[in-house]
């Protein structure tokens, strides 16, 4: 019997059903209305409906058996993005598609790491943060990830395994076009490999005593998504953040102040202000207003 059944609301789009199936590696989804099942949709139903869908490359990610193979698949991501734009897909569809593709690479790399290193000595959850967790990822992005470890974690006993695991995943992501985080917000940094209890203690400190550095970290870490392993741990940690933050007016005020200080990069005629880097013209992303899902 299947536990933790993944379902979908009857108002969801077809593409959302497909992405959910790909994310959770399932071929059928119960459809709910007012939290009651009214039917089931299968991948074959979607394939019949979508005669040609650029997101089907996600399924090929899970079929690859090496980092080199994944690198070859990654070369198709740009084409996938271009096709979606040319097909008039909206920003929500594109952001979610790119996020599912990115999390699929992370998940497959974690599986390959376990094949290379052997089974993990204790339970864990690999998490993604930021735009991927918000389903707002773009075609070019760096990697923000971390590890939630079981409370039985012992650095002397388990540390080497998870250090090698993190290196395999992060190096693999870099090979697939997801650049290393310049701020070192990656599982390769021992600071971002913590037990469940340590993560809660860490997040509680950030909320209860919101220094500028902690507010910056909150902006990154509080949008989190379980990618591989004990996925429920990521959900529990997100719930912890929401419960703790909504009781702390000082923290909420500080986050709100930071948000209103950011202004969108718009010119006099409401067009986007651009900045030049050498001969390349790129969006002025430093001033873009970025939403944070955990605030809702």
From TrEMBL:
<dbReference type="InterPro" id="IPR046342">
    <property type="entry name" value="CBS_dom_sf"/>
</dbReference>
<dbReference type="InterPro" id="IPR000644">
    <property type="entry name" value="CBS_dom"/>
</dbReference>
<feature type="domain" description="CBS">
    <location>
        <begin position="1"/>
        <end position="56"/>
    </location>
</feature>
<keyword id="KW-0129">CBS domain</keyword>
<dbReference type="InterPro" id="IPR005105">
    <property type="entry name" value="GlnD_Uridyltrans_N"/>
</dbReference>
<protein>
    <submittedName>
        <fullName>Predicted signal-transduction protein containing cAMP-binding and CBS domains</fullName>
    </submittedName>
</protein>
<dbReference type="Pfam" id="PF00571">
    <property type="entry name" value="CBS"/>
</dbReference>
<dbReference type="Pfam" id="PF03445">
    <property type="entry name" value="DUF294"/>
</dbReference>
<dbReference type="GO" id="GO:0008773">
    <property type="term" value="F:[protein-PII] uridylyltransferase activity"/>
</dbReference>
